[in-house]
Specification:
Length: 85
Amino acid sequence: MNIFLWVATVLVLFELPLLLFASTAPRIDALASLQASGAIFTLALLALAQGFHRSAYTILAVVAAVLTFAGGMVYVRFFERELDV
């Protein structure tokens, strides 16, 4: 087991408190938590791609990064009246 797989494991463990917070926080705070969780998830996918020596898996991390941003925009659009932004 190389260092990249250890880093990916630690990053996944860092996501657990963020997701727990997102499930109990007000909506605007949950959005920030979900965006941070998406960034950590993307880094974990990149570490897994390096750890398994599969450059093709990097595409999954790129797609996750784009969908994290797009998902945040959809979340804001869906709850725009309740977020008071």
